[in-house]
Design a protein that fits this description.
This protein is of the alpha/beta class. The protein folds into 4 domains: 2-34; 38-163, no CATH class; 172-390 and 564-582, Glycogen Phosphorylase B (Rossmann fold, 3-Layer(aba) Sandwich); 394-560, Glycogen Phosphorylase B (Rossmann fold), CATH 3.40.50. The protein has 21 helices and 22 strands. The strands form 4 sheets. A 7-stranded mixed β-sheet has the order 7-4-6-5-8-9-10, with helices on both faces. Strands 13-12-11-14-15-16-17 form a 7-stranded parallel β-sheet. Strands 20-19-18-21-22 form a 5-stranded parallel β-sheet. α14 links the parallel β18 (408-412) and β19. α19 (529-541) packs across α20 (543-560). The longest helix is centred in the last third of the chain and has 21 residues, at 417-437. It is globular and about 70 Å long. 39% of the residues are buried. One of its GO terms (molecular function) is transferase activity. Pfam families: Glyco_trans_1_4. It comes from Rhizobium fredii (Sinorhizobium fredii). Keywords: Transferase. This is Glycosyltransferase.
Length: 583
């Protein structure tokens, strides 16, 4: 007999038991008593109806909507509905109510996914009274970050509208520096930064976000979304600097030789070049101005190349400097490189420059245990911590697969070079054999990678490969597939989609580099197409083992990708450093 609990989904615990000579699966659903925390993590969406002018009657490219959300679970349904009525009388488009409580049964309840369409523009009204002026719950904020936000307003008891400002409630102040807008959460780097901010908030910090200014459309959404997590947001102007010294000379020699040798794909910016070209003067100016206020206990810098503007003066202003590497560039770039790259743009230069920048930080954060070990070997005098991202929002009940249906495979990603190489490898080396093994199986490819011409060329021979493009709902996408085909060909960092699939209860089909990045999650390393087919055959022949392995992988992933202890350690280090300076 195999018996295992697979976690809490909403308010029920689903348990699968395999027993008997025929190995039949029985599903039991036990209703559990849920506490206030569990209830507060549930979201309910209601459509209140059309406002003064219905959205479909407005001559706009995108339909405007108004969303009312309460800042605390204690707000009465009467107050929320009253606010929605007021907006319906004074605003255009449809009005929705987002609540952590079940409201009046007469209201039209909607699936929370309907607002994630890119064809809408949402204005958010946070209903907050003086006596309950608390920040929105983390689950609510995570959901709102997935909408096309245009503005966030505060709505008081008298229905007076003002700009929303997140209440300050933390014991520590952290300046969070980002090269991008963080919003929307369509990239793995954005998700990591969002999770880091939430982790700091949960650990008792107020966060000020300093990010690089975006183009107008994205800037509007970024300002709105970041106001939900940051007590203040600041933007610095982008500026491309000039290359200097040895870095400039190496690039000039490389460009001359690349032109002479007719190199078709010249090397992208090296780490040293990023430090000089993308570290804006305006970033330094903002860091200095904010640091001189004396309000911050620490500065959190994302990416080692952004440390280019963190000099000794900036370090003294912020007491504690934290650098989140996201990935180790000198390891990530240690792949098969053209001979010209190896000679002129030697990897040793990049490694030396990266280590030089990381030595400026008091705490260095790695995204995986593998990256942490690499950094500890080269930064023996620095505190290196593994800060894994959280993937709780992707966790779903693990269910038995319908053995009478053909397997459906998936691949999801952006147009990054690492993703393109991985998908082309799957199509050219794995898919022909998988197609012979299961002719009715499909490969569903999602994300902006579908726009890549080389991917389109590689897939056009196979009708079973469907290029879906951008998907509004990741959860729905993972519901459609049985296994994610995701080998890792560019090492370093953490492949977010592999963890998402594991948390969604799907098989992760990856190679040795992919399995190493997920360790200690027990994902089997599969190299050849025959390895993949042997694994799938074993799963299809033994449904109980298939279910058990997916549950074990999900449980291990949930345990590994929990970072509350790491954030507590970071905050403790910040507090200790600040107290020692005061003493």
């Amino acid at each position: 007999m195999i018996c295992a609990d697979i976690g809490l989904g909403a308010s029920s615990l689903i348990v699968y038991v395999a027993s008997g000579g025929y190995g039949r699966l029985y599903q039991f659903e036990e209703r559990l008593k849920v506490d206030t925390i569990t209830v507060s993590e549930q979201l309910f969406l209601y459509r209140f109806g059309s406002a003064q002018i219905p959205a479909e009657h407005l001559r706009r490219k995108k339909a405007p909507i108004s969303v009312v959300v309460a800042s605390g679970i204690s707000d009465s349904s009467h107050a929320i509905i009253g606010a929605a009525k007021h907006l319906a009388a004074h605003r255009d488009g449809d009005v929705y109510v987002l609540s952590t409580q079940l409201l009046n049964a007469d209201l039209e309840r909607m699936d929370v996914q309907v607002l994630m369409s890119p064809s809408i523009e949402a204005t958010l009204y946070v209903l907050s009274y003086d006596e309950s002026n608390v920040p929105l719950p983390p689950r609510t904020i995570s959901y709102l970050f997935q909408l096309n936000l245009r503005k966030v307003c505060s709505l008081n008891r008298k229905h007076e509208i003002s700009a929303y400002r997140r209440p300050a409630a933390g014991r520590r102040q952290v300046l969070f520096v980002s090269a991008g807008s963080i919003y929307p959460l369509s990239l793995g780097s954005h998700q990591r930064m969002f999770n880091s901010i939430q982790g700091l908030i949960d650990a008792g910090c107020d966060v000020t976000v300093l990010y690089q200014q975006q183009r107008r459309e994205r800037e509007i959404g970024a300002v709105a979304a970041l106001s939900l997590v940051a007590t203040e947001t600041r933007a610095f102007k982008p500026q491309w600097g000039k290359l200097k010294g040895k870095t400039a000379r190496r690039r000039r020699v490389y460009d001359i030789l690349a032109k002479w040798l007719k190199v078709s794909n010249p090397n992208k910016l090296t780490f040293a070049e990023k430090c000089q070209k993308r570290s804006s003067f305006w970033l330094y100016k903002e860091l200095k101005q904010l640091g001189e206020t004396g309000a911050f206990d620490a500065v959190w810098v994302n990416y080692a190349w952004m440390m280019g503007k963190v000099d000794d003066g900036i370090r003294r202003l912020f007491h504690t400097v934290i650098c989140d590497t996201h990935d180790v560039q000198f390891y990530r770039n240690d792949t098969a490189r053209p001979l010209l790259d190896k000679i002129i743009l030697n990897q040793k230069y990049d490694k030396d420059d990266e280590i030089k920048q990381l030595k400026k930080a008091d705490i260095v954060l790695a995204i995986s245990d593998r990256d942490a070990k690499l950094l500890k070997d080269t930064l023996s005098d620095k505190r290196v911590l593994t800060l894994v991202p959280s993937f709780d929002q992707h966790q779903k009940p693990v269910r038995p697969r319908d053995i009478y249906k053909p397997l459906t495979f998936g691949f999801i990603g952006t147009r990054m070079d690492a993703n393109v190489r991985a998908l082309e490898y799957v199509i050219r080396h794995w898919w022909p054999e998988l197609h012979k093994y299961s002719p009715e199986s499909r490969l569903l490819v999602a994300g902006s990678i579908c726009e890549e011409s080389s991917v389109q060329a590689a897939s056009w021979l196979y009708d079973e490969i469907e290029l879906l493009g951008f998907v509004d709902d990741l959860s729905e996408y993972y519901n459609k597939i049985d296994a994610l085909l995701s080998p890792v060909l560019v090492r370093g960092g953490l492949n977010f989609k592999n963890v998402e699939a594991a948390m969604a209860g799907k098989h992760v089909i990856t190679n040795s580099d992919g399995a190493e990045a997920l360790a200690p999650v027990p994902v089997k390393a599969l190299t050849s197409a025959q390895d993949v087919i042997s694994f799938l055959t074993e799963m299809e022949m033994n449904p109980q083992l298939d279910l058990y392995l997916r549950m074990e992988v999900q449980r291990a992933a949930a345990n590994r990708f929990s970072n509350a202890a790491e954030f507590a350690s970071i905050i403790s280090a910040i507090a200790t450093k600040r107290e020692s300076i005061r003493a």
